[in-house]
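A note from the maintainers: we've had questions about how concatenated examples are separated. There is no special marker in the raw files; a new sequence line simply starts the next protein. For clarity in this README we add a label.
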Amino acid sequence: MAAGGTPSNVDLGPGRLYVAPLGTAEPVNCSAALPSAWIPIGYTEDGTEFQFEVTREAVEVAEEVDPIGYEMTRRTSRLVVNMAEMTARRLGLALGAGASRGDTAAKFTPPKPGDDLAVVLVWDRDEVPSANNVRWVFHEAKPSGSVNIANRKAPKKRTIATTFECYIPGTTSVAVDKSASFDVYPNASGQV
């Protein structure tokens, strides 16, 4: 028995994650190539995972046993990535040094509390953007939670696991719409 689905809507592949310093011009569609300011995160262990959480709380009145409604009181969005390239740039990104840190042999010291830098992130489904690409733009994000560096016996590789908390852009962001922490640009078929 057919499930009534559309096989071409089943999407495969980890996509590509890019980072840029806060204030970098953001893409406004899914098909334009990213300018050179956008740096690829590179290889990952598991691709990129997007998490979105909504919290609603009950509206209660004394005259009813059941809530009379539920109101959204919080929503959070985050990107989880386990970077497989062990470089100074990726360690700096994971520890809040921003997107400008290069892969140099210069000593790295994590930023002081409060000096960590936000970044802009873009996830593209396709390596070469076109009308078939899908693009997610995360306006402002900072690493949060545990940064885990796994040192393992071969054939497993060392990785840097990082979670980026995404939030509504501030005054230094060039996001067109500042009402949400991210925008999604579906492809020509409406896939996200």
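[label: protein 2]
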Amino acid sequence: MRRAAQRGEGSRGFAMMYVLLFVLAAGLAASILVPRCASWYHAALVRYEADCLVSELRMLQQLSRTAAVYPIEAPSDLSLARAAPRLVFENDKNAYCIARLGKSAGGAPQRQKFLYHRHSPAIIITTKERREEIFFERNGETSSDYTTIEVYHEKEPEKQKLVIIDSVGRIRVADANGR
């Protein structure tokens, strides 16, 4: 009788050790996988925001080509370069919008916003040249040689994406290391 009781007590301790080992292994796996999953999520969020920005820049490029076909209301007041739609960064609101210059009720030039994009609060989008707006000329080219827009997560700035616009209007996405 004593032997049977001793075996039962010993096997209960052995089962408890299995449970503790399982919990330890699950905790170890979670401590490794959770930061990796967060990093993958941040990378996917940065890629998504960069792709949205490229899409809107290409739309802006097409809008400027279309705007070149239509006459300006008063050519003496607004040149085509000023009337072309532009991407305006609003860093205080963590957003950007597409706007064009129009006239207010008083006749003064005023920005008219017609497409607004508010990105994730953790995503930072800035230009290396610290420009507040980007616009394209009549033929889809930019007014500057190169414009580089940095898109990155605030917790992982080293894993940034670069949206590069060259002088002839080609738009591409690259990693920070140039790929």
